[in-house]
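Batch manifest, entry 17 of 40.
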Amino acid sequence: MFVKVSYDLSSPVLAVEPEALVFRYGGELRPVVTLTPSSTDPAGKWAGEALGELTPPPPVAADLSSSPVQVTDRLVGFFKEVHPQLLAYLQGTVEVLAWRRGHSVGETQLWSKHYMWSIDGDDWHDLQKLTRISLRLSVGLPVPKARVPPEILEDVRNLVETGVAEPLGRHLLREAWAQREASPRSALVLAIAAAEVGFKQFIGSLVPHAAWLVQNLPTPPLEAMLVKYLPSLPVKLRIKGKTVSIPDRILSEIRSGVLLRNQIAHKGAVSPKSDKLQRILFAVSDLLWILDLYGGYAWAGNYLRPELIAAWKDERG
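Output type: C-alpha cells
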C-alpha cells in the first residue's frame, strides 16, 4: 500500500525554482519527497509531499480492505506511527536543503493539508480527519538568486538518508531571527544559545570522548573556548593559508552579544537596538558556517563572506 502526507508551504529557499524538486530515499518506506511550485504563485507558494510504500500488518490490512473501511484504534495507531516517519523525511529535506543552500536566518511555514492512503497508488483515500498535525518550519535568508544546482540536491539526499540533520544551533538561530522584532531580548538570548550549543556540538563531533563533558559540565565562557580551545581541535577542513580561528570582527560581536545576554538574564536590561541585534545574529550565523567548514563540510566555505575571509589572520601573521 501507499501512504502520503502533503503540506502547503511558503519557502524562500524554493522561490527561485521554476520546476518540481524530487528526492528519492531508501529504507523501509522508500519515501519520495516532491516539492512542487504553485501554478498560481510559483514564487511564493509550494506543495510538499512525502510518499511512502509499505506492507501493513495483517489486522490493519483487513481493516483497510473492508467496505466501508473499519476505522479501528489499531488503524488509527498504524497511520499515526507512519505519519511522523514520512513527515520527518519531508521536514528533513526542507531543512537540510536550506542549510546546504546557505540560508542563515529567516522563516518559512508549512501547514497541514492532506494525509492519504492507497492500495494501488491510483485510488486515494483521505485520512485527514484521523490525523490533524500542523508544523512550522524556519529556513533562511538571504536567498541565493539562482536555481539549486544538481550537486546540492544530491548532497541533500545523501545527508537526509544518512541521518544527518541540520545542526541545532541553526534551528535556534532561526527562532532568534523570527523573534527579533516582537521580542528582541528573547532573540538575543536565543542567538547566544545557538552559538554556545553549536560550538559544544562541534566539539563533540570532533572529539567524541569529550562530548559528555561539554554537554553536561560547566564550560569556560564561549569567547575563551573560541580563542584558546578551538585552535587545538583536530579540525577536518580549514581555509588554506589561514589560521584555525574565528576572525576578530566575529569575536567582537559574539563578545558584546554575551555581555548583553548576561545583562538581560541578571539585570533585566533594556532591549538591544535593532541594528546591533542584527549584527549579532549574522555574526552567530558566520560562526556556525565556520564550524560547519571545520567539521568537514567543504561547501560551508561558499557561505563565508569575502570580506570575512579577507579579515582572517594569515598563518604567518
